[in-house]
Amino acid sequence: MSAATPWTVAGIQAALRAKKVSAREIATEFYADIDQQNPTLNAYLALSRERAFAQADRVDVATACGEKLGPLAGVPIAVKDVISTAGVRTTCGSKILETYVPPYDATAVLRLEKAGAVILGKTNCDEFAMGSSNENSAYGPVRNPMALDRVPGGSSGGSAAAVAAGLAVAALGTDTGGSIRQPGACCGIPALMPTYGRVSRYGLIAFASSLDRIGPFATNIADVAAIMSVIAGRDENDASSAPVPAPDYLSGLEQPVRGMGIGVPEEYFAEGIDREVKEKVLAGIALLEKLGCRRVSLKMPHTEYAIATYYIIATAEASSNLARYDGVRYGLRVPGATLIEMYRETRERGFGAEVKRRLMLGTYALSSGYYNAYYLRAQKVRALIARDFSEVFEKVDAIVTPTAPTPAFKLGEKTSDPLQMYLADIYTVTGSLAGIPGISVPCGATKQKLPIGMQILGPHFSEARLLQLARAFEKAGGFTV
Amino acid sequence: MTISREDVLRVAELAHLELTAEEAELYRGQLDEILNYIGKLQQLDVTNVQPMTQMAFANAVSGTPAGTAPRENDLDLRDDVLRPCNIADAVLDQAPDAAKPFFRVPKVIER
Lengths: 481, 111
Fold this sequence. Notes:
heterodimer; A: 5-stranded mixed β-sheet; B: Histone, subunit A
């Protein structure tokens, strides 16, 4: 289908029911586009054609038999390569898992397929989801489809780029400190990080367990809501998934937002923000006011400590989670004379520079003599950041901020300065630490036509409200404000 | 705060990383810069603040503040019963060196 009328979830459902097209034809069309564009974009690391066509055929048989179709029947979806897919290579963007083929599916993937979705393949990402530009992938960077000399953001850069380029209708990403929202902003598409525990993480290969979440990218809010309605909810295979019933996120989408209180924290518009980003996000907030939202100026005093807190907690958890890559059970093994030598050689050869840097930082923060000064203190500051949010949510329904301080930067621009790269997540790590949901929605572009993202944060389990605000914003033309 | 080359090598050993000399020097400088930035956390007074050790979603719903420990009845625990899974072969198929039903590793115990 031409770029002017891209496929949507609802469009595919209608076309399948009217027998205008088959699921196999749709999948074929997407693979043709991927074959053409992926050599440039590098958004996909693996294509699961066999599995995709088998699934498409199941949908087509069901259609032919007049059976009721699932809510995502025939919808082509891409999956970030940190999420397990049975029989389809899953590398986490790392050399250490170059040959790894999971023996089971992540729950989120199973639920998508059960709803009729067609999984096209696995998308590129920063190694073990550690990065903000996708340049830490062992399989090369992804190019931003909106500006080929720029990064797509990260770590779910391949998922964002695939959807933005029309190489999937939607994609799953993961967000630990901004890895769904920031690439969504960089590539100009909606991207949702659900509440901690809202979506099962069974089959997600862990980076930082108190922060990791799975969530969707799509080109419009209704599609984000459709995916969420399928993947959200309790899973007995993930003890950290919440025993909270998941609503149908589509049903309340068109409700008016008049009267909602929108908090605007001054710390998110201070020093370090790009001028055009600030202008556009303020214009976005003005549009929400025009729709009847009540704007409330706020102070969230612990915001400036969020990056420091995040980089202790996330790296400490990573140093524990990534201890499993030792050459024994899966992935790469580099032989050594002793067991320890084998571990060390395997990890030295298998991990890239950013992963090693974070493992070093996390190990240091947890090591004897430093635990109290770093890790324990970071957990206390995390409580203060979470408290900032719970206090503010007594006064407002949602908080609106920029998603990232700048638009997508140039490939190579920040690779030599890790701290500068970490600061790309300055507006997203706060919500990650607090466990709350956040959505990034497109909010116009710079003069150079680089997309800008606006972030809407809400209290725990307020995804329906965030989607409602995002939908009102979309309908009012906010995406191109 | 300054991190020495010895610190870097000690941490690398704890993390089971075998760093080259160049990597050790690169990480020394970068970790130093990052730790200096992280040092800003020392400015905050955290007396009487309870560390946030739980992502307690159940509490978030029941209205108690995030970060407080979950109560027993908030937890949705499954019954402690065995469920057959029969995945040993599938798991061992992924091993770099398996001698079913074992993973094979270099000799650990000398006698």
